[in-house]
Design goal:
Layout lengths: L18 H23 L5 H8 L4 H18 L1 H11 L1 H20 L4 H29 L9 H27 L4 H4 L1 H15 L3 E2 L8 H20 L9 H23 L13 H31 L4 H6 L2 H19 L4 H21 L6 H18 L2 H9 L5 H34 L13 H39 L13 E2 L2
Antiparallel strand pairs: 1-2
Length: 510
């Protein structure tokens, strides 16, 4: 088979599933994605009450682990989740992931110490990693045969994920202010139980005909690499200097693990992330683009919030409201894009347009100064949302179409895996750029000093901070330009001729 040949898409859902059951299955999948994404972002708004209740003395120092524990566990298991879908069927894996997530949520809500909460967040993350990635596999298998080339399902899932990133902190603030921080975890239980019952009773998916061995050593190496990379990006420049022995040693160990992982994937009979996928042009470019999109989204959402709170003096909860225009633009454009793609328009066209809009919006944010009205910032965020709405979800459909049917799971989770790694690298890269540019203008001062300064010194520090954020936005804009260049290559590569791999015949699973 030619390396760039398009493989046959995954088998369509069995005819036992009526259109009504398929639609209900899609709705259950979207609720599942909401659960996953909200829990990755909702905790940030409840950190102060959590510290006050569980550990008022040392809790602040342990807060980063509250977020990192979930992200580390969720990311580390992504490759294994994909392989489990291909071997045992996506429905069984999704039920297991949702069940684990609910157990972790209940434990988090009942936690009595910061140590317990961090450990339980890791349990929640183990399930949470499957909620997002496995759900995309289920969506692909729920499609009608004539819908297999459209990106509607993946686009909807991507839009819901993007909205969760934008409004998660706001929802967390509302729960914390009017109920208790424990409800940001307890609210998952009724929704999750509905998903469990619905998927078990309604969804019937194709399953692989045989049973294959799982590459547990490869999965362990993938988890170790992801954990090492995320720790380097989390600790570097914050807890430890980039040239410190800890970061250099951890970085070297991470690279060594990566080399071992690649060797294992080239020799294992059933690798968790087959290197043969990278010989498919669409898949290879799709992974790269998704990683860059994750980096660009981090450079926009995270640093927009910093800009509003520090440079413009907007309160944290009110700053979350400024993400609503971005969420609205993402939803409106994303829904329109999904509809047009389902009617036969090329998703690659929207990938190019989305990258261009996102790059322009980030460049405009970089040009915004202290005199720029906040209404203009809202318009720029709406434009950014429109760009991201064309990007999110479309790549999943492209990769799913190009990947061999028996590797649908690993291809889908691979997209999510690279996006997560890109987000981590983006946070580290842009955070370092922000700190270096600020310190160049404020010799002897760090970013933390801005909050304590007064008078002329504060005004000068705010100017330096604004300049630093502008450089971050320009850098993120440059990342989106690179996305545009790669999307143009993806567009040219679509529809490559060649042999099509023969899909495995599905076996109906309950």
């Amino acid at each position: 088979m030619a390396p760039d040949a398009l493989a046959e898409p995954a088998p369509a859902a069995p005819t036992l599933m009526t259109p009504a059951r398929r639609r209900l299955g899609m709705m259950l999948c979207l609720v599942t994605i909401v659960l996953a994404v909200l829990d990755m972002n909702i905790v940030s708004a409840a950190t102060v009450p959590i510290v006050r209740d569980l550990d008022p003395v040392h809790g602040v120092d342990r807060l980063p682990w509250l977020v990192s524990a979930f992200a580390l566990a969720a990311t580390a298991l992504l490759p294994l989740y994909g392989k489990l879908c291909d071997v045992h069927g996506a429905k069984r894996v999704l039920l297991g992931a949702v069940g684990t997530f609910l157990v972790g949520s209940a434990l988090c809500g009942a936690a009595q110490t910061m140590g317990q909460l961090i450990a339980f967040r890791a349990v929640q993350g183990i399930g949470g990693g499957g909620l997002m990635s496995v759900t995309m596999v289920v969506i692909a298998q729920l499609k009608e045969p004539e819908e297999r080339g459209g990106g509607k399902g993946g686009a909807m899932g991507g839009i819901v994920a993007g909205l969760g990133m934008a409004i998660g902190p706001l929802i967390g603030a509302l729960f914390t202010d009017h109920l208790s921080w424990r409800w940001i975890f307890y609210v998952n239980l009724p929704l999750g139980l509905v998903v469990l019952a619905g998927v078990a009773l309604v969804v019937k998916l194709p399953s692989a005909a045989g049973r294959r061995r799982l590459d547990f050593p490869g999965a362990a190496l993938a988890a170790a690499f992801a954990t090492g990379l995320l720790l380097v990006t989390e600790w570097g420049g914050k807890d430890y200097g980039w040239a410190s022995p800890v970061i250099l040693g951890l970085g070297a160990a991470t690279l060594a693990v990566l080399a071992l992982f690649l060797w294992r994937q080239s020799t294992a009979a059933e690798p968790v992330l087959p290197l043969s996928l990278f010989r498919i042009r669409v898949v290879r470019l799709g992974f790269a683009i998704q990683g860059l999109v994750g980096m660009g989204m981090t450079g926009s959402i995270m640093f927009v919030m910093l800009y509003l709170q520090i440079a413009r003096g907007v309160a944290p909860t009110a700053a979350s409201l400024y993400l609503i225009p971005m969420a609205a633009g993402m939803t409106a454009v994303g829904l329109l894009t999904g509809r047009l793609v389902s009617r036969g328009h090329s998703s690659r066209t929207f990938l190019v347009a989305g990258a261009g809009c996102s790059a322009l919006a980030l460049a405009l944010l970089a040009l915004s100064g202290p005199a720029t009205g906040l209404w203009a910032v809202c318009l720029e965020l709406a434009l950014l949302g429109g760009g991201l709405g064309q990007l999110i979800g479309q790549l999943i459909a492209e990769v799913q179409q190009a990947a061999p049917a028996h590797q649908l799971g690993v291809a889908t989770t691979g997209v999510r895996f690279f996006q997560t790694l890109g987000s981590a690298l983006g946070a580290a890269l842009f955070g370092t750029v922000l700190a270096r540019v600020f310190e160049a203008g404020e010799s002897g001062r760090t970013l933390d000093a801005v909050r304590t300064l007064t008078g002329a010194a504060r005004e000068h520090a705010l100017g330096s901070f604004t300049d630093a954020v502008d450089v971050v936005f320009l850098s993120a804009s440059g990342v989106m330009v690179l996305v545009l260049v790669l999307a143009l290559r993806l567009r040219a590569s679509g529809g490559a001729a060649g042999e099509r791999s023969e899909p495995e015949k599905p076996v109906l699973a309950a």
